[in-house]
Amino acid sequence: xxxxxxxxxxxxxxxxxxxxxxxxxxxxxxxxxxxxxxxxxxxxxxxxxxxxxxxxxxxxxxxxxxxxxxxxxxxxxxxxxxxxxxxxxxxxxxxxxxxxxxxxxxxxxxxxxxxxxxxxxxxxxxxxxxxxxxxxxxxxxxxxxxxxxxxxxxxxxxxxxxxxxxxxxxxxxxxxxxxxxxxxxxxxxxxxxxxxxxxxxxxxxxxxxxxxxxxxxxxxxxxxxxxxxxxxxxxxxxxxxxxxxxxxxxxxxxxxxxxxx
Length: 261
Description:
single chain; Jelly Rolls; Arc Repressor Mutant, subunit A; five-stranded antiparallel beta sheet; four-stranded antiparallel beta sheet; 21% strand; globular; DNA-binding transcription factor activity; transcription
């Protein structure tokens, strides 16, 4: 079970079915409508009318997890969706023989946990200390029925995720090792820029093993590609958890398959 701490808002969650991570009765009540959330334009509720934000705040709670804590496992009842308030986490699927495919990394403002058949299709694990906003799916659907802007926001988040997965299928199916690593680094940099975080030096909270399991390579191949990029003057590696992108255009040419290497 995860070693999570919970900061519910104003009142406890209504019953919404079984959940891998439930929000228990509050020990303390967070101040402010969203538990001191500072996501701004990244927040799921950004721009909603006050009445909608009020309804969301009555059914959501914030939770905190430590590195390696599991938020939920593949096959658990999909009782809630989550919005990342702070930190980084990964979602993955396991094969019967134990092999793992990391299907995504999530950061501030990202949402995950959407499911179609009532159960989670993947497991979610914290990489760093993580804060999330937990929204019961049944209550969110009820609100969406009377607030079209909520439904539109949900569809927008799901559509963006689908577009990302299409790009990732291309990466796994057609790109070389160096093209995959370059695409991964540039993708993280672009996401950091959109969040308002530095894109260079770029934080790499995940380890090389996680990167390898995400882009379908071995750890050794990822490390060799990183070292080659460094030798070519495309990146710097000041420490294992960050990378400085020195020549983004040259790295993009490699990612696109148009560079002569």
